[in-house]
Design brief:
This protein is of the alpha+beta class. It has 3 helices and 8 strands, in the order ββαααββββββ.
């Protein structure tokens, strides 16, 4: 059996070697059982904290992606709704522009009909059709352009003028064709006759 040398160079026992009496020497690290358990608990807590932080980070990233997808979906839904509404307004506007000349002719016929003809059952039926058309316009957001005041180039077309001194300049004297809005957007301007100042005759 080989023996370790001691600090003086002589033979001596190793760290856990037995002496000549057969006794095993155990070196104490100085760490108690409580200390070992506390160290293990601290290590476990640190590892759990790190895993918790990683899980929280992954959750936050997933939540952020989810919110972005929801925002993208909401934007797509709103855009599709706007496009659908715009398409509907465009299609409705085109249809109404085709229908309005028929309504104009209908109004002219009523305007020139004798009073006694309008008083008959037939005349009453024709008047009912006119009222149904008005209800239809309202249902689809069609509003007649106001022509009771002064000329407005944004909603009126002046197709005729008349010199007048008894009314202010640009007063609307007559409506030659009604104008209409569709959902507050001009569908067709009103054609009107407006007053202009009389020309001065020089002496």
């Amino acid at each position: 059996m080989s023996k370790h040398k001691n600090e003086k160079g002589g033979p001596g026992p190793g760290p856990d070697a037995s002496d000549d009496t057969g006794t095993i020497e155990v070196h104490d690290s100085g760490q108690t059982l409580e200390g070992v358990l506390e160290e293990e608990e601290r290590t476990a807590l640190e590892e759990s904290g790190a895993r918790l932080k990683l899980a929280q980070k992954n959750f936050d990233e997933l939540k952020d992606r989810h919110l972005r997808k929801l925002a993208e979906f909401e934007n797509m839904r709103k855009r599709a709704e706007r496009e659908r509404s715009e398409y509907f307004r465009t299609a409705l506007g085109g249809f109404l522009l085709d229908l309005l000349p028929i309504s104009d002719t209908f109004d002219r016929a009523l305007a020139h009909a004798p009073a006694e003809a309008l008083a008959t059952d037939f005349g009453q039926g024709v008047g009912m059709i006119r009222r149904q058309l008005d209800d239809l316009w309202k249902r689809y957001g069609v509003v007649e352009v106001d022509t009771s005041g002064l000329f407005d180039p944004n909603v009126h077309d002046a197709v005729a003028t008349e010199p007048r001194s008894d009314v202010p300049k640009d007063t609307i004297l007559d409506v030659l064709r009604k104008g209409y809005f569709l959902n507050e957007k001009l569908l067709r301007p009103a054609l009107v006759k407006v007053a202009v100042p009389p020309e001065k005759i020089e002496d």
